[in-house]
Design brief:
Number of strands: 4
Largest sheet: 2 strands, antiparallel
Length: 220
């Protein structure tokens, strides 16, 4: 039987003068050289003898930061933003030029008229008030620009909404009846019924959709 004194043995790393610390992040090559990288503070030069181990490997020091050589999952290249030069066709028709868009009120207005409940029309009133006090939309509607160029002979939600917004700001301090929108309720959505309790968000979505369709050429 052969008894081996484990305490007298030195590891391969110690034999080349480089101790492996549990805080080191790196690998040891076949020749015993260390591949761990350490970031040193500005108060200690990189060629300081205190940082050099007998085998030429940098050892750990207080305040040192370990950088893993493996690429991190957060170091991914940023996705390139699509631009007009990426092969995407330009729109056939621009409904409203972005250069003309103003998110603030172009002129000061007094608080507009309130809307009378015509019988379970609170869903309609609340949605109309949200659209009326959306500055970019109201700025455009108050210029009457749409009605000057509209050639729709029948129902046009843009013209209906324009007339409503103009009427609201023309009757500040009063209460008006949204008859113009109520009369077109079934054209906004076929399943809407006058006098029925409807969902305000659903009405808002159908109204905005009808406004967009009024600006697009052609039929279904």
């Amino acid at each position: 039987m052969t008894i081996v004194d484990r305490s007298s043995e030195k590891s391969d790393h110690e034999s080349v003068g480089c101790k492996r610390s549990p805080f080191i992040s790196g690998d040891v090559g076949m020749d015993g050289s260390c591949s761990s990288s350490w970031a040193m503070g500005s108060n200690m030069p990189s060629d300081s003898p205190k940082l050099k181990a007998p085998g030429g490997c940098l050892g750990p020091m207080p305040g040192a930061t370990v950088y893993n050589s493996a690429p991190s999952s957060v170091d991914r290249p940023k996705e390139q933003v699509m631009s007009s030069g990426d092969g995407i066709d330009l729109p056939q028709k621009v409904l409203f030029s972005p250069e003309r868009l103003n998110l603030k009120w172009t002129q000061v207005h007094r608080i507009g008229a309130g809307l009378q409940n015509m019988g379970n029309t609170c869903f309609l009133n609340s949605a109309l008030q949200c659209l009326t006090y959306t500055p970019p939309l109201a700025n455009y509607m108050l210029t009457r620009e749409h009605s000057k160029t509209c050639h729709e002979p029948g129902f046009c939600m843009m013209c209906t909404m324009q007339n409503h917004i103009i009427q609201v700001f023309a009757n500040s301090g009063n209460v008006i009846k949204p008859i113009g929108v109520l009369n077109e309720l079934k054209r906004i959505a076929k399943h809407f019924r006058y006098g029925s309790q409807e969902d305000a968000h659903e009405f808002l979505r159908y109204t905005v959709d009808a406004m967009q369709k009024s600006c697009l050429p052609g039929t279904k």
